[in-house]
Automatic annotation (TrEMBL):
EC number: 6.3.2.12, 6.3.2.17
UniProt pathway annotation: Cofactor biosynthesis; tetrahydrofolate biosynthesis; 7,8-dihydrofolate from 2-amino-4-hydroxy-6-hydroxymethyl-7,8-dihydropteridine diphosphate and 4-aminobenzoate: step 2/2; Cofactor biosynthesis; tetrahydrofolylpolyglutamate biosynthesis
Catalysis: reaction(s): (6S)-5,6,7,8-tetrahydrofolyl-(gamma-L-Glu)(n) + L-glutamate + ATP = (6S)-5,6,7,8-tetrahydrofolyl-(gamma-L-Glu)(n+1) + ADP + phosphate + H(+); 7,8-dihydropteroate + L-glutamate + ATP = 7,8-dihydrofolate + ADP + phosphate + H(+); (6R)-5,10-methylenetetrahydrofolyl-(gamma-L-Glu)(n) + L-glutamate + ATP = (6R)-5,10-methylenetetrahydrofolyl-(gamma-L-Glu)(n+1) + ADP + phosphate + H(+); 10-formyltetrahydrofolyl-(gamma-L-Glu)(n) + L-glutamate + ATP = 10-formyltetrahydrofolyl-(gamma-L-Glu)(n+1) + ADP + phosphate + H(+)
NCBIfam families: folC, PRK10846.1
Name the UniProt record assigns to this protein: Dihydrofolate synthase/folylpolyglutamate synthase
Family classification: Belongs to the folylpolyglutamate synthase family.
Function: Functions in two distinct reactions of the de novo folate biosynthetic pathway. Catalyzes the addition of a glutamate residue to dihydropteroate (7,8-dihydropteroate or H2Pte) to form dihydrofolate (7,8-dihydrofolate monoglutamate or H2Pte-Glu). Also catalyzes successive additions of L-glutamate to tetrahydrofolate or 10-formyltetrahydrofolate or 5,10-methylenetetrahydrofolate, leading to folylpolyglutamate derivatives.
Cofactor(s) named in the record: Mg(2+)
Single Gene Ontology MF annotation: metal ion binding
Gene Ontology CC terms: cytoplasm
Enzyme class: ligase
InterPro entries reported in the protein's UniProt record: Folylpolyglutamate_synth, Mur-like_cat_sf, Mur_ligase_C, Mur_ligase_C_dom_sf, Mur_ligase_cen
């Protein structure tokens, strides 16, 4: 092994990583700590922001990244999961890292791990930090994968930690009550460092845990807030009287003001090391984009792609649909993973969707369409829903039933939205090529 590379391409590395550990999800920091001790520095050479939460963390990360880049800083961002390519998970200065850089990092990790069996997520997390240390960005932003306390990104002490929101998701690992989940999410907070809470009505335990850990809480509705401006735009405010007049975020939805407020608070907490002007904040909010979050493709038939995969995210999607002008009928293609609650996703969307097409993606964790149909039988009695075990077939059936002016919503998981985005972009490329 000393002079040999285990694999020579990214797909082979990723396939092997998925089989290396006996469990797809194995929370805990012992394995990544043991490998990082042999691989990387004890302290990181850049400011670090860690972002967790049930919903909104991806949006918060995207806004923070866009603001930093608008200020002229070189960024490193780690997020998950991806939609089209694994490379999306690691960005340096706004660009996905190359296959070659990922493979080189995977090789370094493989050599350093010895006999330690890492999960797929742990391998990716170590690779991201390895690449960031080597590329020396001005600031790094890490998105928590699952929970916080025992998630691999929590190995490194963040200068600022953000929890965007608390909701019921991943209950098998995090607990089945908001207080239990709040405890796990609060695990990313650090003593004497800001703990940004981007939710007004967050469970009380989240703030209590921040205080217990000696962190400095910065919570929406308390230490920070926002209001809609009289002449358009909005106002971000913080004591002692700081007020920023800002444009609407490019990402849709009233909840994005909460996510933007959290991102701004996190970056303001770093102002001595990372000064950012109001103009950079304005520019970043208008440039930030996040594929798969109410992503609209207008046309004769409008496509709406949204990765909403729990009740809170579905409620946010419903708020966007309420403000969305659809001239015709809205049909929905739904596929979810096996550990999700499809009823909690469907119920907020019922007032907007005329017809449902239930299906499953090719993800091995996908909920079989028969089970999905059973779970939704009381909510979507026949003939309100059609079923198909093939995602492409369900999409085709929904398209065939649609007329000009109608809209088609694809919702339920990253895997289903990613598959349809790939299908849609492939079809568009064929049309443009033809």
């Amino acid at each position: 092994m000393a002079d040999m590379t285990r694999f020579d391409n990214l797909d082979a590395w990723l396939s092997w990583q998925m089989q290396l550990h006996p469990k797809a999800i194995a929370l805990g920091l012992e394995r990544v700590a043991a490998v990082w001790e042999r691989l990387g520095p004890a302290s990181l050479p850049f400011p670090l922001v860690t972002v967790g939460g049930t919903n909104g963390k991806g949006s918060c990360v995207a806004m923070a990244e866009a603001i930093c880049r608008a200020a002229g800083y070189r960024t490193g961002v780690y997020s998950s999961p991806h939609l089209l390519r694994y490379n999306e998970r690691v960005r340096i200065d706004g660009e996905d890292v190359s296959d070659a850089l990922l493979c080189e990092s995977f090789e370094r990790i493989d050599r350093a791990r010895g006999e330690t069996a890492l999960t797929y997520f742990e391998f990716g997390t170590l690779a991201a930090l390895d690449l960031f240390v080597r590329s020396a960005p001005d600031v790094v932003i890490l998105e928590v994968g699952l929970g916080g306390r025992l998630d691999a990104v929590n190995l490194w002490d963040a200068d600022v930690s953000v929890v965007t929101s608390i909701g019921l998701d991943h209950t098998a690992w995090l607990g089945d009550s908001p207080d239990e989940i709040a405890f796990e999410k609060a695990g990313i907070f650090r003593p004497d460092r800001p703990a940004v809470i981007g939710q007004r009505d967050a469970p009380a335990r989240l703030r209590a845990e921040a205080l217990r850990r000696g962190s400095l809480p910065v919570q929406l509705g308390r230490e920070i807030d926002w209001t809609i401006g009289d002449g358009g735009g909005w106002i971000w405010s913080a004591p002692p009287g700081e007020r920023l007049a800002l444009p609407e975020p490019a990402m849709r939805g009233p909840f994005q003001y909460d996510n933007a407020s959290a991102a701004i608070a996190a970056l303001r907490a770093l102002h001595e090391r990372l000064p950012i002007s109001v103009n950079a904040i304005r520019a970043g909010l208008q440039r930030a984009r996040l594929p798969g979050r109410f992503q609209v493709f207008p046309g004769t038939l409008t496509y709406i792609l949204d990765v909403a995969h729990n009740g809170e995210a579905a409620q946010a999607l419903a708020a966007n649909l309420r403000a969305f002008a659809c001239r015709g009928r809205l049909r929905a293609v739904l596929a979810v993973l096996g550990d999700k609650s499809p009823v909690s996703i469907v119920e907020p969307l019922l007032p907007f969707v005329s017809d449902w097409y239930l299906t499953q993606s090719r993800d091995p964790r996908a909920m079989p369409v028969e089970m999905l149909s059973e779970r939704l039988a009381a909510v979507l009695p026949k003939p309100a829903a059609a079923t198909s075990s093939d995602l492409d077939a369900a999409l085709g059936a929904a398209e065939a039933a649609s007329e000009p002016g109608d809209a088609l919503l694809v919702v339920g998981s990253f895997t289903s939205v990613g598959a349809v985005l790939r299908h849609f972009e492939g079809s568009r490329a064929e049309r443009e090529g033809g």
